[in-house]
Amino acid sequence: TATLGVLGGGQLGRMFVHAAQAMGYRCIVLDPDAISPAGAVAEKHIQADYLDHLGLAQLARDCDAITTEFENVPALALETLAGMRVVAPAAAAVAVCQDRAVEKAHFESAGVPCAPHAVITNDIELAAVDPALLPGILKTSRMGYDGKGQVRVKTAAELAQAWNDLKRVPCVLEQMLPLKAELSVLVARGADGQVVTYPVQQNLHRGGILAVTEVPAPDVPAEVATLAIASARQVAQALAYVGVLCIEFFWLDDGRLVVNEMAPRPHNSGHWTMNGASVSQFELQVRALAGLPLPEPRQHSATVMLNLLGDLWFTAEGGPTPPAWDRLLALPGTHLHLYGKAEARHGRKMGHLNITADTPEAAHAVALQAAALLGLPTDF
Ligand code: ATP
Ligand code: MG
Ligand code: MG
C-alpha cells in the first residue's frame, strides 16, 4: 500500500486521513503536538516541529506523497520535502496564500478583482494611505485566521493606533465593503492540469468565524455563480495549483463580485461535500495527491452545514460538556461530524453538522430546527 503524509494534525488533516484510509492508503501525520485530531487516527504520528529536519526526513522516507492541512506551515518545509517526494500543493503556491499582500497581487495578475487595499509596512506607507480606503479593516499580512489579527478602523488616527496595536507587523488595509453575501468556490486541480469545481457555496460568518454554509447558494443568481466559478478556475490555473483550493468571495450590494482570500487546502465551507456530493473535498485532495483521476463532483442533496463551536459545550450551568446529540440526530437528514478534540474552548471548531434534503427549502427548514435545538442563532 502507498503511504500519504500530512503536515498538520488538525480536523482538516483528520478528515483527509479518513478519506485516504477509505481508499486503502496508510497515513502519517507530522504535528508539533503529542496529541492531535489527525494524529489520533493516522497509522503513524511524527511529533516534530515543521522545520525539524529529522522529522521531515522521516516523513519523506516513509511516504510516497505529502500534503498539508495547515496553510501556515512554513513554505520551507514543503520545499525541503519536495526535493525528496511528491508534494502538493507546491511550496510556491502555499507561499502566495500565506501573505495577503502577495495573494492580492496574484488575484490582480490573474485578472480577478479584489477589495481596494493598501499595503502597510512602514510609516511612509501608513501616512500615504488613501482616505478613500476608510472605514476599513486592517489585517496582518500573515498568520491570521477566523478574523484574528484584524482591526476595524474608521479614521486615520484609529488606523495608526491599530497598526501600533498589531506591533507594526506588515499589514494590508482593506476598504470595508457592503456585503450582500459571502461566497466560496472549491476547485480541485490535478498535476495533469485537469480542473473540477463544486457549486458555489454561500457562507454566513459570525464574529469572523464561519457559522453556516448553504449549497445551493440561496441568494445567488446564475450569472454571479458562473462568474465565481470561472474566477476560481482562473486563480487555480494561474498558480499551476495541484490539489484542493478554496477561494472566498464577497458579493457586494452593487452586484459586483470581488475575491477575498484563498486557502490552499480543503476548507470549512466545503464540509457539506461529505454528505451532499458524489465525492468529498477530502477524497479529491487524496486523488490529486495520489495522481488519480478527478471526477467532476455532482451535488446529490441540498445541504446546509452548521459549524459546532466550543461555545456549545458551555451552558449556563458551566461545562465543558458536549451537547446532547440525540434530539438533534432525530431530525431528518442530519449527519454529525466531531473532530475528537480533547478540550472545548470558546470559538474553537469542535465539529460540524450537515443537513441534507431533496430541496434547498427542506434542508433550510431542518437546519433552522437544528439551530434552535442547539441554541444557535436562527438568522440564516
Ligand atoms: P478565515 O478564517 O476565513 O481564513 P481570516 O481571518 O483570514 O478568515 P477574512 O476572510 O479576511 O479573515 O475576514 C473574515 C471575515 O471578516 C470575512 O469573512 C468577512 O465577513 C469580514 N470581512 C473581511 N474583510 C472585509 C471587507 N473588506 N469588507 C467587509 N467585510 C470584511
Ligand atoms: Mg484567511
Ligand atoms: Mg476568510
UniProtKB/TrEMBL annotation:
Binding site residues for ATP: 100, 139, 144-150, 174-177, 182, 205, 260-261
Keyword Nuclease carried by entry: no
Reaction equation(s) it catalyzes: 5-amino-1-(5-phospho-beta-D-ribosyl)imidazole + hydrogencarbonate + ATP = 5-carboxyamino-1-(5-phospho-D-ribosyl)imidazole + ADP + phosphate + 2 H(+)
Any single GO CC term annotated in Swiss-Prot or TrEMBL for this entry: cytosol
Keywords, comma-separated and alphabetical: ATP-binding, Ligase, Nucleotide-binding, Purine biosynthesis
InterPro entries: ATP-grasp, ATP-grasp_carboxylate-amine, ATP_grasp_subdomain_1, PreATP-grasp_dom_sf, PurK, PurK_C, PurT/PurK_preATP-grasp, Rudment_hybrid_motif
EC number annotated for this UniProt entry: 6.3.4.18
Enzyme class per UniProt: ligase
Similarity field: Belongs to the PurK/PurT family.
Subunit architecture: Homodimer.
Described function: Catalyzes the ATP-dependent conversion of 5-aminoimidazole ribonucleotide (AIR) and HCO(3)(-) to N5-carboxyaminoimidazole ribonucleotide (N5-CAIR). Catalyzes the ATP-dependent conversion of 5-aminoimidazole ribonucleotide (AIR) and HCO(3)- to N5-carboxyaminoimidazole ribonucleotide (N5-CAIR).
Protein name per Swiss-Prot or TrEMBL: N5-carboxyaminoimidazole ribonucleotide synthase
Native organism: Roseateles puraquae
